[in-house]
Amino acid sequence: MRTQLLGQxxxxxxxxxxxxxxxxxxxxxxxxxxxxxxxxxxxxxxVRCLQQYLNSAGFTVSTSGVGSPGRETNQYQAKTxxxxxxWQAANGIAPATGTFGPLSRxxxxxxxxxxxxxxxxxxxxxxxTTPTxxxxxxxxxxxxxxxQSSEERAARxxxxxxxxxxxxAVDEYDDTKxxxxxxxxxxxxxxxxxxxxxxALYAFVDEDYDEALDQAEEALDLIDEALDELGGGxxxxxxxxxxxxxxxxxxxxxxxxxxxxxxxxxxxxxxxDAEDLLxxAEDLLxxAEDxxxDEDYDExxxxxxEIMDLVDEALNEL
Length: 318
Hints:
The protein is mainly α. The protein contains 11 helices and no strands. The protein has helices spanning 2-6, 12-16, 45-56, 78-90, 102-113, 150-178, 186-205, 209-230, 239-266, 272-293, 297-316.
């Protein structure tokens, strides 16, 4: 179950936590089309193409015999798996499971789609002149850090939150199964959550941050439903802990948003609407704390969701 469900989702942070991991040096043009996962036991022409790519990229499947350059096969066996694991590790895909899944396919497209820069035409040597005192070289400017939009940040955080919740849910599933307790429809729900996370990943890569955020939130909803099926959701007796955690997260989100509003204000941006939204979020935070004191945990969770929505709206105003 863990292998089937956890799949490539555990590696999402690699792609999401930094642009550098998705901007490799130029590589050869793509020659393979992968439309499904490739794993131990798979038989298809896509496997042969993958072996040819690995052999040409320096991750040799075999130095001689079956799988060696010129003798690639359509069989995904142990040597192919080992070569894929080396390729994944070299390209920042963790954990390197040896399964050529969604994240690996996305990475392959990036690696093989880079267009090499056209070499500059050598300059014609100038006619020698009377030597002059060379000018002092200018200090190279420090490259500016690319600005990160509020939409990108919200999508990134939602994907990472969903990834963490998903892994916890898979652990809960495994424990429940080992105890022989009822699983309900948890497996189906977790599989759907994994699919939603995959869609969120691809949307993020395509810079469609609104779609990435929607898919990540869909994954979170499915995970919560799965936990309810396992008895680990909001009805498991941990309501108070969940409510306290929700308030802490909402408070932290408000504080972070205020910092960004202040920075935008210093830059001369109009932040009036964002400030109004954050003040409204602070009022709801007080209501949530009162509801926590009254042990109305459902109300706390509802208010926390409203607070996070207001924070997102405030950031979108910047």
